[in-house]
Amino acid sequence: MQYFSELSGKKVFTQDRNYIGKVTDLLFLPNETPLVTKFIVKTPKGNTVIISDQEVRKNGIGFIVNNNYKQENKAENEVSLLNKLQNHQIVDISGAKVIRVNDVVISDVPDYTISGIDIGVLGVFRWIGAAKFVSKLLRRLNIHFNSDFIPWSQIEAGEIANGRIVLKSEKERLKKIHPADLVEHLEHATIRNVLKSLRVMDEKLSARVVADLNVDYQREIFQRFNPSQAGKILSLIPSDDAVDVLLSLDTQKREKILENIQRGKKGPILYLLAHARTPIGHLMNTEYITVPSDVSAKVALAKVKKEAQDFSELLYVYAVNKKNQIVGVCNLHELITQKLDESIYKFMNQNLVLGRLTTPKEILLRRMIKYKLYAIPIVDDNRELLGIVSLQDIVEEELEDH
Fold this sequence. Notes:
alpha+beta; SH3 type barrels; MgtE N-terminal fold; seven-stranded mixed sheet; four-stranded antiparallel sheet; 39% helix; elongated
């Protein structure tokens, strides 16, 4: 067993003792058996040479390669030890513990294979050649300080290529924690630890958590995300939440992020942004379904099934006439309990409670409470539906304001 710190910087020669350069990195396969496949060598002129591990053997002065060795290229399934493991961090989701990979443990029998990672302080001293001295000094002081080793079997190999080091136990723990509980915990952590914790999560979970964080955390997080990262996350959260995030950022940052939002999600976000400066527009969302008032319950249900798959929730289906004006509403319970051939206009509620972009949210809230509604449709002067405002969004904003 040896360490990457002991291999890095070793000299490489041909069989005829011609100097090639020094080892700077290793390429390996990030799977359950992480074989080292290639050595990366830097020549005295600063060029990079990639040599297959099959060409390399160790000797007293460093490494020897065959005289007729072949220069290789990095394969798509190979990753860099230096860029993906060494000095990277393993994050405890609680944020209380951020562990640094100080060295990488490598087995050389029968082939070079990554055995695990060293997160102990001796790994740091090993890089400056002081590990033995420090160990002796600590023993004289009667302080026992061993290397802290995490075996490869405890690491999620599939996450390495994405630049994340995730322990299997940590990933399992994440699956068991409700996103709301994660949010509550992270809002007591520093922004730095929040960012590190988000990197441990898969994209869908991190998106759910980001959507529920308070606006101050959201602003700080997206200020630090590059536009590509930010666009990917905002493409996964409800459009109205994405708009809240974008409005908290400066115009230049906002425009760069918008360029990276998925095409199918970009339209609704731009639409909501256009109305965001009105009294109620910033609370409006486009997760609603409209159907012609003369279609059957069967047709309406088919549309719900097709269009609402990515909605965070769906409470009502709105009926419109041929001029696209809203003329009625039914909740999902009413819809699914009707005969399939029953026309919507026969059972829809025509006594609509509506709001406009200029309606104060306090009035909308009173209407929702009075009529026991979970959402109110927002219309223009022609009674065309612009979006809906949910009771949850109004209440959440009221709580934040107070």
